[in-house]
Write a structure and sequence with these properties.
Length: about 425
């Protein structure tokens, strides 16, 4: 009998263990609530203060005075991006919405800074946070969105107007010490005393399909590495600067890389910028498949030890100088189309040459007058640039520069899909119950 009892106990223990092992993990979370302004609370800040993590603060159409601090995981959403206006005050030193918590959403709002002439008038400040999203908003501020120490956030589909931002330095979207963020599909315009987008000490960010119009500088990357700048349109209408001295306009550019390395500048359009793309004291960057046209001074400029960069398959047309090299060497330049520039290439203060072909093919030059007797598409004689530089394999016909299609993002899409499937499988291993 004792042996039988002991066996029964062991069987029971085995059964209980198998049951506990197979029981799925249970998470209990509170149900999401929607707090409505002004129905539930008169001010936006009151609604935020009384919300809890996961809640939605819905702000109905109207104008609401007062800056807002968001220090919990909520969604702050306007009823209409044109009809829901938050007008900031000086309680946050000029910031309209200060975000101090991860995973916050700010969406469909018009945000007006109390003082939008100088750099203290800020729209949204993402301060040391991650996983936040600022989407579909309208900004009237000297700094539209400022990311500081922020990682893994998304700033998308916003309109940032700097018309009243008349005291430099001002900027539409500003990243400082921020990594792995996505700046997508924003319209930044009329920052005629500052920048459309600026990055300082910020790595691995993605800037894609933004429209930057009539800003003094389009994009500036300073000590920022491994960023991707793709499919953006940068236009600077020179009429904006008629009131400025001509030598002031010399500093105006579509994109400037300064002490920045391993960045990818692909598939962008730089139109009517006094200087199109300027690379200063930077190495190992890729400038590929861009259109640079209508630059009064220079289309692509490499200066002050900008070495070991690649300039490939760009359309460089109708500029004052197509490409300029000043004290910069060992750059490789091939498969570009140089057409109707007043001067194709200039080089100054150079001890070492640059390379204007890849060892097999070079660039197309609209003023090349050589022959192609064997019909291989390569000129029989080099295209001479200066005593140190020549294109040994000039193309007699323009290389086909492909447009940057959505297929370029296919690997990223496939990766995201795989990650999503794995996450979904893990999710099905848990049961989630909500408190009604």
């Amino acid at each position: 009998m004792p042996a039988l009892r002991m066996g029964a106990v062991l069987v029971l223990l085995l059964v209980l263990c198998s049951v506990f092992v197979s029981v799925p993990e249970i998470h209990v979370v509170a149900a999401t609530m929607t707090v409505v302004v002004p129905d539930d609370y008169a001010s936006v800040q009151e609604a935020v203060d009384n919300a809890v993590d996961g809640d939605v603060v819905l702000v109905k159409c109207g104008t609401y005075n007062g800056s807002v601090v968001v220090n919990k995981r909520i969604s702050l959403i306007g009823e209409s991006k044109t009809g829901t206006v938050i007008w900031g005050d000086w309680s946050l030193n000029g910031t309209v919405v200060l975000v101090e918590h991860d995973d916050v959403v700010v969406e469909k709002l018009t945000l007006k800074a109390a003082y939008d002439a100088g750099p203290h008038g800020r729209g949204v400040h993402l301060l040391n946070v991650k996983g936040c999203r600022v989407s579909g908003c309208i900004f009237q501020a000297s700094v539209g969105v400022w990311l500081y120490g922020a990682s893994g956030n998304i700033v998308e589909d916003n309109r940032i107007d700097g018309t009243k931002a008349t005291m430099p330095p001002v900027v539409g979207i500003k990243l400082q010490y921020s990594e792995d963020n996505r700046i997508v599909g924003n319209n930044v315009l009329e920052f005629v005393y500052g920048f459309g987008v600026s990055l300082e000490f910020s790595d691995r960010n993605v800037l894609v399909e933004n429209q930057l119009l009539n800003n003094y500088h389009g994009m500036w990357l300073n000590e920022s590495n491994n960023n991707s700048v793709t499919g953006n349109t940068v236009t600077v209408t020179l009429d904006v600067f008629l009131r400025l001295a001509d030598n002031v306009m010399l500093g105006c550019y579509g994109l400037r890389l300064e002490q920045s390395s391993n960045n990818s500048i692909t598939g962008n359009s730089f139109v009517d910028c006094p200087k199109g793309v300027r690379i200063v004291a930077s190495c190992c960057n890729l400038v590929e498949n861009n259109t640079v046209s209508g630059s009064r001074y220079v289309g692509v400029e490499l200066a002050d030890d900008a070495n070991h960069n690649k300039v490939v398959a760009n359309s460089i047309q109708n500029n004052g100088v197509g490409a300029s090299f000043a004290n910069s060497s060992s750059n490789i330049v091939y498969h570009n189309i140089f057409v109707d520039n007043t001067v194709m290439v200039t080089s100054l203060l150079m001890d070492e040459p640059n390379f204007f072909d890849d060892g097999a093919e070079g660039n197309y030059w609209s003023n090349y007058n050589g022959t192609d007797t064997d019909g291989d598409g390569i000129g029989d004689t080099p295209y001479i640039i200066d005593a140190n530089n020549q294109d040994n394999y000039p193309l007699v016909e323009p290389a086909v520069i492909p447009e940057f299609p959505s297929l370029a993002f296919l690997p990223l899409f496939l990766m995201a899909t795989v990650v999503g499937v794995i996450a979904k499988k893990k999710h099905h291993k848990h049961l989630t119950y909500k408190i009604p």
